[in-house]
Amino acid sequence: MVAILLGPPGAGKGTQARRLEEDLDIPQISTGDILRDHVARGTDLGKQAKQYMDRGELVPDQLIIDLIADRIDQDDAAAGFLLDGFPRTIPQAVALDGLLRAREVPLRAVVLLDVDDEVLVRRISGRYLCRECGEDVNTGGEEPPEACPKCGGELYQRDDDRPETVRKRLEVYREQTAPLVDYYEGESLLRRVDGSGEVDEVTRRIKVAIKG
Ligand code: AMP
């Protein structure tokens, strides 16, 4: 089964995708995580991508499409996958349609996580990630705990979670990614889910939206 989690930065796509991974028994594929891994390893792709990421802009479509084409052909993705942060532009969505068609895998649902701007900015500015297990810890504006509550790993804040970059990322979302809502609504694949409130409750809503 293939599903997409769509929504602005801070909507909870990563947190929810990691939780759903186990439940649906398909891997989460996050282009943001893959790119951050390339940046950390200093690969050529990482060096190219970093310039865009640091500015809050999108990495060029073709780099991302090649990366996804490669990733979905790995063994763990054979039974399906949950996309988080891809597609983010119309050309990416068109390319994904082609990749899925060639592999004869249907797209089951596109879940749009709806969250107010005010909540997005608050969530992003209080967001810390664990270097070891990737856990997303939200402090709600308070100081972060000394270590990851799940595994004890070191916590860090993403470079692109600074307020000025966040504003740019929200603008990029509205201009380049929001048009995907109409694109998928046209194909009757879009399911709107309220992304505010308790994490568990949002997970439950997404499961209903995907399976129902
Ligand atoms: P994310 O972790 O999904 O918020 O992504 C972090 C950054 O990685 C974005 O601000 C973009 O610079 C880049 N990125 C991630 N996914 C994509 C994508 N599908 N297309 C273009 N750039 C992307």
SSE layout and pairing:
Elements: E1 2-6, H1 13-24, E2 28-30, H2 31-41, H3 44-55, H4 61-71, E3 81-84, H5 90-103, E4 107-114, H6 117-125, E5 127-130, E6 136-138, E7 155-156, H7 163-177, H8 179-186, E8 190-194, H9 199-211
Adenosine monophosphate binds next to helix 2 and helix 3.
Describe the overall structure:
The mean pLDDT is 93. The protein is built from 9 helices and 8 strands. The chain has a domain at 2-26 and 79-116 and 175-211: Rossmann fold (3-Layer(aba) Sandwich). With 212 residues, it is α/β, with parallel strands linked by helices. The strands form 2 sheets. The chain has a 5-stranded parallel sheet. Helix 1 packs across helix 9 (199-211), helix 2 (31-41) packs across helix 3 and helix 4 packs parallel to helix 5. The protein has helices at residues 13-24, 31-41, 44-55, 61-71, 90-103, 117-125, 163-177, 179-186, 199-211, and strands at residues 2-6, 28-30, 81-84, 107-114, 127-130, 136-138, 155-156, 190-194. The protein is globular, with a radius of gyration of 16 Å. Residues 9, 31-32, 35, 52-53, 56-59, 64, 85-86, 88, 92, 160, 169 line the site of adenosine monophosphate.
